[in-house]
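Students often ask what a holo structure prediction actually looks like on paper. The answer is less mysterious than it sounds. You provide the chain, you provide the ligand, and the output is a string of discrete structure tokens encoding the 3D arrangement of the protein together with nicotinamide-adenine-dinucleotide.
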Amino acid sequence: SAGASARVDLDGNPIKPLTICMIGAGGFIGSHLCEKLMSETQHKVLALDVYNDKIKHLLEPDNLPWHGRITFHRLNIKHDSRLEGLIKMSDLTINLAAICTPADYNTRPLDTIYSNFIDALPVVKYCSENNKRLIHFSTCEVYGKTIGSFLPKDSPLRQDPAYYVLKEDESPCIFGSIEKQRWSYACAKQLIERLIYAEGAENGMEFTIVRPFNWIGPRMDFIPGVDGPSEGVPRVLACFSNNLLRGQPLKLVDGGQSQRTFVYIKDAIEAVTLMIENPARANGHIFNVGNPNNEVTVRQLAEMMIKVYSKVSGEQPPETPTIDVSSKEFYGEGYDDSDKRIPDMTTINRQLGWNPKTSLWDLLESTLTYQHRTYAEAIKKVIAKPVAS
Ligand code: NAD
Ligand code: UDP
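The corresponding structure tokens follow.
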């Protein structure tokens, strides 16, 4: 449309339509990014993934307004010779592909390391060799634990932001011992970040690294036994949604004392769009993307989700709303946790003028409305069905 073609970047220059090779486009973040790019921009997307369930609504039917601007390529980047051709055909590559659920880090450390480091190597290499720009998805988990977590419990310094706020160009990366296999993911992500950074420094590759801080919203992960394995353990939003949908207590790992900041997926996607469309401001940078105003302990998250779910479903909260479970019982041997994650927003603010907007209550309200609408009936059927032996 005329409106779309008149869009300008942060420096007032008209935005040229790009062809984007999006790897992992069928996942949670990819699906929201594809939606945004189709409905609000003129860019083309080559969507690569092994699954496309979460973007089916963008691919079919043939008469969608963006028909022809998004094409799905079913492939596994571990072994597919089409990868280089698709990267060459594009102006920009965005790599989202990864194993990124904590339940896998200590139980499938080899797959985790291969997925987050080895499998990303050819993507970086093809971008560097063909002079293509890369936006690579890392994680806030590369920061690991806060410096403050090593101070005595009653130290007043624990209240000093210098000991916990995570800053792209200053904070160290602090992981647990090797036998705490939880850190296999963070460590693999750290090494791929260093490799990309080095490609920039030594070979002039144009790159942007994104460190998401707990992006949440509709289509995140799966509901066990409905659209994913019954024994599967997704990330906390889907775990708690599953418990709420089934009227079961929410499980608090090691007392639910860890702290997180949650950002609404739609706010975060705006940050990614700014990176895509303002290369001169985004290249060479690592960006925290999160909402420092939405901090809660996992216990507080559970309590808030129970209230919000009761409101949107009209159901009474369960009699036993939460139960404590040890991390060993829940995740198995080798689990460890990040204690606290407050993103410093200086860099993204300065470079892209981005700020998150949505409060935790509001983002949970829209997300749990979606969960209830999407899954409540399916769960009733699963519960009613006798378990196959
Ligand atoms: P997701 O699991 O929903 O999406 C990842 C997608 O990559 C999946 O659709 C998967 O099928 C695909 N994929 C994995 N391996 C592949 C392969 N070998 N070939 C082709 N496709 C493959 O996860 P997400 O939440 O959308 O995360 C995307 C990226 O952002 C990941 O790199 C993750 O580490 C990072 N991240 C996300 C968050 C968050 O808050 N959601 C936090 C930190 C980091
Ligand atoms: N967690 C929990 N109960 C659950 C699932 C997760 O208490 O059913 C905790 C987990 O131990 C961690 C936090 O919730 O402290 C966030 O977990 P998530 O899987 O979302 O990923 P993380 O933020 O650790 O990468």
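The chain has 15 helices and 15 strands.
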